[in-house]
Amino acid sequence: MKTLYLDPISGISGDMMLGLLVDLGVELSAIESELCKLPVSGYALEARREARRGITGCRVHVTIDEHHHHRTWAGIDRMLADSALPEAARELARRIFRRVGEAEAKVHGVPLETVHFHEVGAVDSIVDIVGAAVGLTLLGVEQVVCGPLPMSQGTVLCAHGAIPLPAPATLEILKGLPIIDGQCDKELVTPTGAAIAAEIAEFGPLPAMTLETVGYGVGGRDLPDRPNLLRGLLGETTENGEIDRVVVLETHLDDTTPEVLGFLMERLLAAGAFDVGYSPLQMKKNRPGLRVTVVAPPPLADRLARLLLRESSAIGVRRYETERLKLRRDSATVATELGEAAVKLIYEGEKLLRVSAEYASCRALAEASGRPLPEVYRLVERAAEAFFPV
């Protein structure tokens, strides 16, 4: 499986992602050709070789002559939906913008449809997001894996004035995903970069692969303590990319209340655990108890183990790293009589095995329509099976 591993040495932004894709072999002219299908003007793209701390990569510079042009999420989404972009790139760009829009809506306390974009809605960011979606499609990547993203400290100026780093929208986008302390007072991960990574990538260690190409996307700043680069490793993964590594955390409890257990599961999942499960067992002194099992990305093992110790009565946690055989997943939306719904596509290699409706999307449709949730599930899955025949 053709796999791209993103190594966020100094974070990720939209222009760094564009530069990386060009450095990996995507022709900038091919990206520009697709961007011309959008009713957006007043910009120019230039790819040039630049070095950061002695390492050379590609920087894609977006020059714009349009300023302070605010756009709503609904307007951007409608523009993309009506465009002649290739379907895969068009839908990926829409999902990335939706992530940013939902984060902005949460931060500012407004409905998604009324969100006004400032920096993210400007021409350069539209170019970054759509260009990244087009570039990934042209590169033919089947799987993207990303390392944990480095978070900054301090403040950054935006349309609303000085805001703390990481930007509030960035943190909303990265909920449930692994982050680390970047030990930097400059913005390393922008909302646009965070949304691209969150939408296209699984987060985890470098997978076993036959390495083919290495590329570098160059950031605008020349940082004093690190090369301001987004590195990409492109290659073929073994076992069709279906095996990765996870950490399993376990502990036994016999004196924790159901209320605490419910809260514990919520905290562990919010902190980035892939899965949390409770199973009954008989413990010493004939006490009924339970086993807590947490499956997580290896970089989060320490954080989740300490969270488990703090939030429960456990005084010890067992941990081990193991392989995980998994099926490839993709996301899509389908139209139903109740509105659009998100579905999950499950693949074995290139074969589509099944399509399943996403709970959150079905629940929203059930609440809006007054229909029973099981009926909504059936409605969505029938629509999905017609659109994606197994």
Summarize the entry for a quick read.
By secondary structure, this protein is of the alpha+beta class. Helices cover about 35% and strands about 35% of the residues.
Describe the structure.
This protein has 390 residues and is an alpha+beta fold. It folds into 3 domains: 2-240, no CATH class; 243-325, Transcriptional regulatory protein pf0864 domain like (Alpha-Beta Plaits), CATH 3.30.70; 328-387, mk0293 like domain (Ubiquitin-like (UB roll)). Helices cover 34% and strands 34% of the residues. It contains 11 helices and 20 strands. The strands form 7 sheets. A 5-stranded mixed beta sheet has the order 11-6-1-13-12. A 4-stranded antiparallel beta sheet has the order 15-16-14-17, covered by helices on one side. It has a 3-stranded antiparallel beta sheet with strand order 18-19-20. A hairpin with a 5-residue loop joins strand 15 and strand 16. Keywords: Lyase, Nickel. This is Putative nickel insertion protein. One of its GO terms (molecular function) is nickel cation binding.
